[in-house]
């Protein structure tokens, strides 16, 4: 199974060979793990990579039916590794069968091509993640009952869809790190992409490990919807530079997301958890409801939102300067005076830069006296 066209063959174990065939190598590892399910001796080990672990069967409140819930543990690393491989394969599929075909038609420059690929990949991911997270919020009832975001903390036991969502989120953002190497991202772009990748990993890991999965789910939904609008606007801009209205719509959603994030965090962590009965640190019960941890979480979120707003203001100011510069250039071009029409002379008229008399003959030029 080949994900990329082989225009040139490279020696085995070389850097170019690894970059060109990394998706095929990872696909072979995934097949090897799936084959392990077929044998009894390796099935228990293979299932660690595919299915989320640490399941607990309990009775649902008010009902006789049994419900399977999950909590986290070190075996989640194996599951994250497997879906880390899956993310690399899906990344290659989207790049080969969607983005590369569009790139060949647009004929973008190298810098724009890198940003187009980045926005294309993130647009697909944000669309899937926003729809998925919204579905979880609806089925779990978090939107209809906002107080459930902090009530009955700690939220140690998770449903399958919630835990699987967090594991795949961690796997995707971890896979984005080696993709910087596989996609040959320019050095100027690496630092910028590393910033938001590490921020996503930090916030998702904190929400998962501190048992703030419900609040984190709402915040991820808001963030992904906002980022989806930005990357759609950038894709439209690369196809046609006259598409600027989507950036204005994204600007409104960006500010709304920042304000909603800060409001929700202060409401749930600063107000809701501070009034909970079970105060204190208890690692066995998964309780991290202490003043120090709450202040650290709020400080981390506030610093992140402030940094994002600072970058947003710089981006808008740069757009405003470019717009003003374009308006000034257009105004200068419009106010340029056209060449004055040549006036008819009393002796005749001008023709091809030569003064002609009325009868067609050239008038005699006067001799200038020497000083």
From TrEMBL:
The TLC domain covers which part of the protein? 114-323
Name a single GO cellular component: endoplasmic reticulum membrane
Q: How does it sit in the membrane?
A: Multi-pass membrane protein
Superkingdom is Eukaryota
User: One Pfam family for this entry, by name?
Assistant: TRAM_LAG1_CLN8
Q: Where is this region: Disordered?
A: 332-371
Q: Where is the composition biased (Basic and acidic residues)?
A: 342-353
Question: PROSITE patterns this protein is in?
Answer: TLC
Entry keywords, A to Z: Membrane, Protein transport, Translocation, Transmembrane, Transmembrane helix, Transport
Membrane-spanning regions, if any?
21-39, 80-99, 120-144, 217-237, 249-271, 291-310
InterPro entries according to UniProt = TLC-dom, Translocation_assoc_membrane
Compartments where found: Membrane
Q: Which GO terms describe its biological process?
A: protein insertion into ER membrane; SRP-dependent cotranslational protein targeting to membrane, translocation
Similarity field: Belongs to the TRAM family.
- Protein name (record): Translocating chain-associated membrane protein
This protein's species is: Salarias fasciatus
UniProt lists the gene as tram2
């Amino acid at each position: 199974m080949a994900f990329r066209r082989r225009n040139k063959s490279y020696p085995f174990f070389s850097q170019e060979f690894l970059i060109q065939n990394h998706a095929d190598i990872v696909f072979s590892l995934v097949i090897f793990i799936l084959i392990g399910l077929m044998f009894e001796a390796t099935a228990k080990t293979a299932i660690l990579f595919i299915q989320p672990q640490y399941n607990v069967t309990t009775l649902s409140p008010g009902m006789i039916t049994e419900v399977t819930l999950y909590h986290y543990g070190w075996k989640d690393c194996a599951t994250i590794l497997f879906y880390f491989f899956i993310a690399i394969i899906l990344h290659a599929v989207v790049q080969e069968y969607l983005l590369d075909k569009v790139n060949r038609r647009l004929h973008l420059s190298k810098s724009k091509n890198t940003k187009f690929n980045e926005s294309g990949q993130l647009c697909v991911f944000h669309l899937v993640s926003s729809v998925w997270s919204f579905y979880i919020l609806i089925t779990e009832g978090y939107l209809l009952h906002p107080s459930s975001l902090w009530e009955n903390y700690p939220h140690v036991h998770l449903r399958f869809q919630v835990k699987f969502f967090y594991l795949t989120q961690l796997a995707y953002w971890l896979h984005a790190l080696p993709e910087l190497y596989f996609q040959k991202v320019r050095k100027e772009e690496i630092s910028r992409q590393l910033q938001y990748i590490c921020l996503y990993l930090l916030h998702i890991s904190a929400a998962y490990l501190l048992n703030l999965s419900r609040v984190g789910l709402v915040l991820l939904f808001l963030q992904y919807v906002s980022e989806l609008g930005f990357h759609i606007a950038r894709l439209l801009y690369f196809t046609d530079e006259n598409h600027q209205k989507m950036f204005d719509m994204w600007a409104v959603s960006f500010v709304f997301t920042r304000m909603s994030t800060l409001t929700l965090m202060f409401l749930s962590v600063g107000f809701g958890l501070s009034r909970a009965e079970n105060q204190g640190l208890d690692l066995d019960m998964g309780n991290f409801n202490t003043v120090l941890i709450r202040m650290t979480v709020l400080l981390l979120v506030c610093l992140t939102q402030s940094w994002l707003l600072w970058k947003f203001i710089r981006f808008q100011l740069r757009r405003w300067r470019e717009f003003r510069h374009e308006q000034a250039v257009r105004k200068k071009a419009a106010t340029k005076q056209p060449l004055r029409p040549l006036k008819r002379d009393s002796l005749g008229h001008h023709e091809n830069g030569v003064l002609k008399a009325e009868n067609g003959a050239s008038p005699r030029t006067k001799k200038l006296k020497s000083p």
